[in-house]
Amino acid sequence: MTNTTPALQINNLSKVYGNGFTALKNVNLTVPQGGFFALLGPNGAGKSTMIGIISSLFKPTEGSVKIFGTDLLQNPSIAKQYLGIVPQEFNFNQFEKVEDILITQAGYFGIAAKEARPRAKKLLTALGLWDKRNNKARELSGGMKRRLMIARALIHKPKLLILDEPTAGVDIELRRSMWEFMQQINEEEKTTIILTTHYLEEAEQLCRYIAILDHGEIRVNTEMKELLTQLSIETFILDFKKPVSGEVSISGITSYSQPDNQTLEVTLTEGESLNGVFQQLTQQGIEVSSMRNKANRLEELFMRLVEQGIQSKDSMKEAGL
């Protein structure tokens, strides 16, 4: 990475609300320029609080936030120029026309309508909304409103884009088209992207970096490929070319099951060979037509980390800590 200034630098960030609830505890996080970064965590982990602080909705109790080297608390107007945010909730004027929503947003950043219109056309076209430009926002479907939120966040060409559950409630086909658009602006425009999502396959497919937040603390902060190597147990589904009669017999692996006469589920731990399973099937005259993971690898690891966190918290309660 040639650029040394991080897109986002969070140092010792803490947030304690007026009722005494601690949402963030000395969080440190660095997001490199040009990165595609996943910020994951269960409900109540502190993700919304962190995004609220970055977007200036909340003030931190302690700590600092820098966006491309600019301190958010000391120079908010400059820092916000670098930032585009797509929140979970629709927060535009439902009675305003689609194109006008983008032009109005551009005006907040000092961009004249003459300059904003070509940018609005480009974004609305890329997101499949150009033919809806004269429609009022309230007339759009839920998926179209999601895309409008993304277009609005990008109208001033931010260097850092935060997407907070951008595909919630969006159908599979539309979700994948949005994935393609996110990858495009990350690769072609070098826009740094931070993604929060409950669809963990999105994080695994899109993101190079990942941080997992739990109970207000960063539990994991690494590259995606590094994190996935920590997964020691994996379950595969094997589909046979033809139905088999009787039971399949496999040895030398953790476990297996046969849901029907054309499918086999095998669970392997680290060191166990999938090739050995194929060899045994071949010996039994069984050909495999396809293979897939039963569960998303990241989801398995994420749930394990959350469970460990819950167990650790329970242990502390039992100890009176």
TrEMBL record:
GO terms for molecular function: ATP binding; ATP hydrolysis activity. Residues 8-240 form the ABC transporter domain. PROSITE patterns: ABC_TRANSPORTER_1, ABC_TRANSPORTER_2. Transmembrane segments: none annotated. InterPro entries: AAA+_ATPase, ABC_transporter-like_ATP-bd, ABC_transporter-like_CS, ABC_transporter_ATP-binding, P-loop_NTPase. Gene3D superfamilies: P-loop containing nucleotide triphosphate hydrolases (3.40.50.300). SUPFAM superfamilies: P-loop containing nucleoside triphosphate hydrolases. It is an enzyme of class 3 (hydrolase). Pfam families: ABC_tran. Its EC number is 3.6.3.-. Keywords: ATP-binding, Hydrolase, Nucleotide-binding, Transport. PANTHER family: ABC TRANSPORTER ATP-BINDING PROTEIN, ABC-TYPE MULTIDRUG TRANSPORT SYSTEM, ATPASE COMPONENT. This is Daunorubicin/doxorubicin resistance ATP-binding protein DrrA. The gene is drrA.
